[in-house]
Prior knowledge:
By secondary structure, the protein is α+β, with helices and mostly antiparallel strands.
Amino acid sequence: MALQGAEVQLSCLDEQGLDARALIAAVVGAEGYALLDDDGQVQDAVRVADTSGLSLLSEAERAAVRDWERHLREIDEGVPPDAAEGTMPRPGYDPVRFTVRQRITAKAAELKVLGFKSSSVSTIERRRRVYQARGVFGLVREIAIGSPWGRTDERVVRLLLAEVEAGRDESDGHGTRLYERLQAAVERDHPDEYDRLMISRATFYRLLERLGISVDSLRWPTQRRMDAANGATAPYTPTWALRLGEQVQIDSTGLDIIAVGDDGRPVQVELTAAIDVASRSIIGAMIVPKVPGRGPRGRRLGGRGTRSFDAVLMLAQALAPMPGRPGWSPSALAERSEMPYADLVACDPRMAGAAARPVIRPRMIVVDHGKIFNSEHFDDVCRMLGINVRPARTRTATDKAVIESTFGAVKKRFSQYVAGYTGSDLARRGKHVAEGSLWSLNELQDLLDEWIALDWQQTAHDGLRSPFLPGITVSPNRMYATLVAAEGHVPLPLTARENRKLLPFKRLKVTDKGVTIDNRTYNSEALQEYRNRHSQIPGQGMRWQIRYSPYAPRFVWLYDHTTDDWVEAEFIHQRLISDAWTQWTWEQATLRVLEDGGHRDDQRRIAREVSALRERARRGPDPQAKQVPQLFTGPVLDLDVDVPDPYEGVPDPDPATVVRAPSLAMDAEHILAAGDTTPPPRTAAPDQSLPAVPDAPESIDDDGHEDEQISWSRPSGADSLSLRGNAADIFAFGYDRPATPPLPNDPIPHGSASDDDAANGECL
Length: 764
């Protein structure tokens, strides 16, 4: 009804309603605001012309648009826009003397003379109306928005993106493999339209470029492609917290270091850490060996990695001050740091002599979907301590960005300076890393704790800035001092009795032999008081709660809920182990006993093996022992060839048909006589003389012995071959000594050769 300054008077159409006053900006900007004409119809709202389309034109097209604008403004104003002040209108364009129609007709005639192709009166009228409504952009031809992937069908694009996503975690491949998979997908989903939908190979590569998919990215390492696919999506927002412990992020990663395990052998290690987002303080860090187990899945022995108990033990570290250790730098102590040491000692006497690492009680923990953080033990301990556990969203790196960035800084500022550093993968590992000097697991844990207190907590962090001086970065300890002064600190001291409630447990029945946990038997006189005793818990019968520590399995504790007391029991074969040992050492010893043919229930033998492993780890490898590598023989091939049996098909001999072996023509003692080459003597009758031996040597002495140059020859019928030497040498070549011919009138022994055989030169 009225307009006054920045306000309008609104009249209510309802007679019983009340008028109102409102800001004109609120009325015009309302969603239901509209301007009506005299007939009550909604008029088009005034829109601001978009002139950005001029940047899409070429220089010639832009000059033509500006030329048209100059002519149209001359029709309306009488003079061109670039005319000097006081310029008189040209003939036919004076708005005072000529109508709009006349001025348009004159302009059409002029444009026709200038050579404009479209210069009719109707064209000029249409362009004039568009120019008045939309400005110079109305003179630009409308540009149709094309498809972002060209003329390729959208269904093919969806199939291509699906194939790219399916190959994220596969081995790398070339673009040709992706193109063939796209062909198979189109033929599978659209067999009737394959010829029309399928694109050529050149169009396929142009489509990848339109979609922002690099062909080289298809051959990236698998982990790199997975990281790129699971990376954070824009816009990136930093994780922030205003209170200590408001958000604590926990995760595990490989530390890229080789250490000496409890069994004395080099092992990879894994780091599990917790960081407070508000102060960027590392409030807990645990190093464990990372060794794959052996055996079938589900029953593997000897394996080790971060377990739920390690995460629980790390939480226990965060709730208690870490005492300074001998050999540490004095600057690593809290009294030398920026922490409010005097106030903290007055609040918690345990801070006296503690390391420069704050004690922060987590209020909320952000974890990933690893099984160690989703275990019932970890969840139960967090609930008992009043800590909320929030799992990060799947494939959302920003939910745990702080801890992931912290791991990268730890590897850069700590791992690469430690002996046994391996690099992030095998391609970056140095030669003979495991053969050099290595730290033990306990020594490596001590180095990390000192580095956290000395370097990480006292170095300015780029993510921590003063709210009053944003250009100045502060250290985690300085940020902790600022926040703890604002909200205070309430310690949570846990006694030894309460710390036992953080240990994993099993419900077991106490027998006369005690209790058995992981093929180890524990017993004591106090434990025997609970033998065959009911626990008074419905559904549990005689089973009692037994707590144990994987890092110190020497003792176990039975919890008596009726008296809120603990009963201690010791491993029955502890006397066989003279050193500290862990659950992992026991599993390694069990594996060795099983490989030697033993049984997992042979606790005495396993205990001795644990002692041997600890002794070996303490002694180290023998430097005098030479390690001879085995010959490389290549892969095992099946080279056995079936050899035919020469007796196949031959029937078994009949004992009744076996002929007795012939008798020898000489004494057995003369057959293999190597020193005497004289033929055995023959006894003849008094009236008979010895006949001449065929091919006998001419030189025979009076005693009937041949000379040393005796000649031996093959029997007749064979190739003649003479050898000179003693009988042993000749027999070595397989030539038999010829038998002496029988004397006349000697009877032929039974079974000897016949006359025909003798004629052929064959003899026995």
